[in-house]
Structure formats: C-alpha cells, structure tokens
Amino acid sequence: MKEVNGVNRFRSMTPPASTATLVLPVPTAAVAHAERVPTTRRYLMCEPRHFTVEYSINPWMDPTRPVDTALAVAQWNALVATYESLGHRVERIDPVDGLPDMVFAANSGTVIGGRVLGARFRAPQRAAEADHYRRWFLDHGYRDVVMPTRVNEAEGDLTWTGEVLLAGTGFRTDPAAHAEAQEALGVPVVSLSLVDPAYYHLDVALVVLSEATRARPAHIAYYPGAFSPGTRSALRRLYPDAVLATEADAACLGLNAVSDGRNVVLAAEATHLAAELEAHGYTPHPVDISELRKSGGGPKCCTMELRG
After folding, report:
1. Tens of each residue's pLDDT in the chain, 308 residues
2. Is 98 helix (H, G, I), strand (E, B) or coil?
3. Cell membrane among the record's keywords (predicted)?
4. Residues 6 or more apart from 9 whose CB is under 8 A from it?
C-alpha cells in the first residue's frame, strides 16, 4: 500500500507560471457542431443519510431554514438512477454521522489516470471528510494517493478538460494548491479566479460539456459574472465557442452539472441553459436537487468522477 505524504513531495515546488500562456486549438464551426458522443463514466457518491444544514460556510446555507433529510435522500437516489439509466457506474462510500456535507463527494478527491489527489478543506466542519475518502481509495485498490499540504477542495475547484486541469481559486482552494495538483496528477494546470461569493467553487460556475480528444477541443459552459476580468478574457481565448450561462442559470446552480459528452444532468430550473445545450447538440436531463441546494450543492457536487 503506497500512500504519499505531500509535505516531502512538494517541498521544492514553485507555481506553474508557464500554464498562463497555454494555447489550445480553436474549433471550427464544423467541429463545434459535430455529433456529440457520450462516454461511459464511473462515479463515487455518498448517500445524504445524515444531511442537514447545521452551520453556514457559504452564502447558500441557512441553519434556520428547515431541511428534509428524507427528501434529500430521495433526490439523491433519483440522481443515481439517472446516471445508471445512462449506462454509468456508481460506486458508493458509506456516510458518516456528524458529517452532513459528506454527500458532496466531488469536494474530496480528484482522480485522473488512476492517480488520486485528496482534499484539504478550508472549513473545519468538513475537515474529517478528507480522511474517510482517502481510506476509501486505499481500500479499493488505489496506490498513488497524495494528500495535499495546501487547502484544496478537489473537484469543487479542479475541473479536467481532457487536456488541462482548470483550477479555481478565490474563496476556497489555495492558489498554491494548483502547483500541488500539477505535480500530483501530472497534468498541466490553468488557474482561474472566482470573484462572486455565491459561486465560491469552480464547479458552480463552469462545467466541461465534452472533453478534448485528438479530433476536437474541449467544450465548456460557464457564467462570466463569476470570474475576474482577466479570467474572463482567458476563457474567451481558450474556449471561444463556449456556452455562456445567464445569471438565472447560475443562480439555480445550473452549471453544477455532469456531462458524459452528450448527456448533461443538470438542475431542473436551468431551463435557459438546457435549451442552449440542446441547440449545441447535447441532451439535457433535468433533475430536482432543491433540498441539496440548501447547502449549495447540485448534481456535480454529489459526484466525484473516477478516471482511469
């Protein structure tokens, strides 16, 4: 069993300044509107058996607002059923009493090519989640598991495009964690700055709709208002054909979506975004995540992708 301690591994690291000048291929109209091809995915999820809102660590959370845990479980089960109906495989990690946000599996690990970079939470209320997920990986045969030394909220702020890792910062994940991610996962990183507290994680402001292949670049959707001016400029340069979400799309966590390259699972209220996705060749699958949204979560927050 190999578990790597990030302290020694990252001691001499410097931030990957070179990633700022990375140039990706610009799609032609013909490529941009080619047929969307789904790929089978494998996900790790955690039932919200202990879900509640008993503290506030983001603008969505209000401990005085009633929470229906049974409804949250029902919505989560419907999300799992949606994935499985699309041919995807869902692995499960047991929930732990006293960790109400453990349902948001995306925040506890980033997996690319079988390599795992764990999480280090900013909020002390969630800190214990990281070790439960670390043990799950080790118990399920993963041998290259690295725990970060910097605050790193995993797929909440790290989004794989098939070519580069888009890395958010501004509210949760430490900018220095981007360098750790590059070293641990062995992929190039592009840093993106978030500026709106309502969109405190990258995965509530941006979604990869289709990953890059040899034949075509990655395709994304994002809400420009969530990002700094420089980051908006960088995103326009990197992804000129991106789907631009409206404020209403973002406000219902419509961008906290999961795509397999054709099928996009997203919040039912994001009707404008769903129509835009259809116009771009995708098939939207609306789901009700209203109860989980009380903690600032949606389909993507509940879903960690196990790649490789």
Report:
1. 444 443 333 333 333 333 443 444 444 343 445 689 999 999 999 999 999 999 999 999 999 999 999 999 999 999 999 999 999 999 999 999 999 999 999 999 999 999 999 999 999 999 999 999 999 999 999 999 999 999 999 999 999 999 999 999 999 999 999 999 999 999 999 999 999 999 999 999 999 999 999 999 999 999 999 999 999 999 999 999 999 999 999 999 999 999 999 999 999 999 999 999 999 999 999 999 999 999 999 999 999 999 98
2. coil
3. no
4. 146, 183, 184
Residue 60 lies in a domain: yes
Burial class, 194, CB count within 10 angstroms (exposed 0-12 / middle 13-18 / buried 19+): buried
Number of domains the chain contains: 1
CA dihedral (93, 189, 175, 55) positive or negative:
negative
Cα dihedral: 76, 78, 81, 85 (round 10) = -130
Residue 46 bears catalytic tag: no
Distance CA 152, CA 176 (A): 9
Of residues 46, 50, 219, 301, which has the active-site annotation? 301
Residue 5 lies in a domain: no
Q: Is residue 32 part of a domain?
A: no
Q: Which of 160, 179, 178 is nearest to 169 (CA)?
A: 178
Q: Which of 50, 201, 219, 280 is catalytic?
A: 201
Residue 88 among the catalytic residues: no
The answer as to whether 210 is a domain residue is yes
pTM for this model (two decimals)? 0.89
Q: How many CB atoms lie within 10 A of CB 247?
A: 12
45: helix, strand or coil: strand
